[in-house]
Amino acid sequence: MSSILVLDDVEDAGNLIKRILEKKGHDVFVFTEEEDALNHVKCSKTDLAILDLKLKKMSGIDVLEKLKSISPSIKAIILTGYPTVETALESLKLGAGEYCVKPIDKEELEKKVENVLRN
Questions:
Q1: How many CA atoms lie less than 13 Å away from 114 in the CB half-sphere?
Q2: Which of 21, 32, 39, 56 is the Cys-Cys partner for 26 at CB 3.0 to 4.6 Å?
Q3: Cα(90)–Cα(46) distance, integer angstroms
Q4: How much is the average pLDDT of 86-96?
Q5: What mean pLDDT is reported for the chain?
Q6: What CA–CA distance (Å, rounded) separates 51 from 91?
Q7: R_g (Cα) of the chain, nearest Å
Q8: All residues at 6 or more sequence positions from 19 whose CB lies less than 8 Å from its CB, including other chains
Q9: CATH number of the domain at 3-118, please?
Q10: Burial class (CB in 10 A: 0-12, 13-18, 19+), 109
């Protein structure tokens, strides 16, 4: 299946996503630090990044921009508990395939991951 990076400042949130997606056969790597996630993509093939919008040092949009410069083909989904039209548009402009609102719905996450990876 696919190699998926999850970056969320709350480790439990990342681990929840990991459990959901590993049941679908994906390899999932969870990070809470932006630098660790960026280094992972530099060293390992990553198909999809699932990024929380609010992180410790950067925004998920900033991380997405850096990820795209490292690996232009990486696909992305932005997660947020604070949805706005502006962040949704910015995410999509930078190449995020989807925008998900927390709390995470298991079926919605599975469907969005499948759609982004397929396209």
A1: 9
A2: 21
A3: 22
A4: 86
A5: 94
A6: 10
A7: 13
A8: none
A9: 3.40.50.2300
A10: buried
Rounded Cα distance, 32 and 58, in Å: 12
d(CA 90, CA 78): 10
3-state secondary structure 11-47: HHHHHHHHHHHHCCCCEEEEECCHHHHHHHHHHCCCC
Residue 45 — φ and ψ, nearest 5°? -65, 125
Residue 103: cis peptide before it, omega within 30 degrees of 0: yes
Note the pLDDT of residue 41. Answer: 98
Cα–Cα dist 7/90, whole Å: 18
Residue corresponding to tokens 């996450």 = 109
CA–CA distance, 108 with 30 (Å, rounded to integer): 19
pLDDT band at 94 (very low <50, low <70, confident <90, very high): confident
Closest CA to 109 of 32, 4, 10: 4
Residue 110 and residue 24 in contact, taking contact as beta carbons nearer than 8 Å: yes
